[in-house]
Amino acid sequence: MGRFDDKVVLVTGASTGIGRASAQRLANEGASLFLLDINQPDLDAHVVTLNEQGVDVGSAVVDVRSDAQVAAAVLECVERFGRLDGLANIAGVQTWRRSHEITTEDFRRDIDINLIGTFIVCREAIPHLLESRGAIVNMSSTTAFAGIPYSAAYSASKGGVLAMTRSLAIEYAKEGLRVNCICPGGIRTPMTDGAMAQFPEGADMQLLLRQMSLDGQGEPEDIANMVAMLLSEEARHVNGTSITIDGAATA
Ligand SMILES: NC(=O)c1ccc[n+]([C@@H]2O[C@H](COP(=O)([O-])OP(=O)(O)OC[C@H]3O[C@@H](n4cnc5c(N)ncnc54)[C@H](O)[C@@H]3O)[C@@H](O)[C@H]2O)c1
What we know:
Helix content is 44%, strand content 14%. It has eight helices and seven strands, in the order βαβαβαβαβαβαααβ. It has helices at residues 17-28, 40-52, 67-81, 104-132, 152-172, 190-193, 205-208, 220-231, and strands at 8-12, 32-37, 57-61, 86-89, 135-139, 178-184, 242-245.
């Protein structure tokens, strides 16, 4: 008997990294899944892997910035499974630039995907989550409250996710919907693997390494475990909060 038997969870950013690990963890506990991502090859490969394990899984190639694509995908999910119990909003990007050199367009990209994209998926999913008295987990970051250089757009977007999470929790708590977020520190994923090459020339490594975890780098599963916890009934009294998972980096 799994915590997510007969439950349906929609996961964004499910192709790689934390989203992929979260989908796998939820499936291990019995969830049926609907996966969204913009990266089709890795999304398709993940669906094949889950199908081979007997998981009931649907997917859609979606840019979370698109109202129409997100609305269609949420509808497809609910038509397929007849319900929606959980949403894990994990899709995200990080732009590394000196702040006096970043273009407005690039700054907006982080805000559009990480903050507004997260909001669009929440907005489309909430009517269905209210029916099931479900739960949302959004992916913020320690950069929401602890400064990191060359990442002002990303930090602003993740601060927005943290504040929006609290606001949504207050708005819907009496109707039985819970909304929480997770603030990971450095986790080993394609996003962080590729980060080094994107640091601006002459980047101050001392500033970048100011907040190092004290127990080695975290793995996607360390976050996936908390995604599952927060979406489960065991977290029924956990609402409107953020959980930091960073190996004491910001303690
Ligand atoms: N890895 C870390 O150290 C770390 C730390 C704090 C927060 N996070 C957050 O965790 C989340 C997952 O990141 P990750 O580290 O697993 O990186 P990742 O690059 O492996 O995963 C991000 C996923 O989001 C998808 N995506 C990007 N833009 C999209 C869009 N417009 N529409 C739909 N999907 C899109 C990507 O294709 C990818 O599959 C992100 O929100 C990230 O900001 C990561």
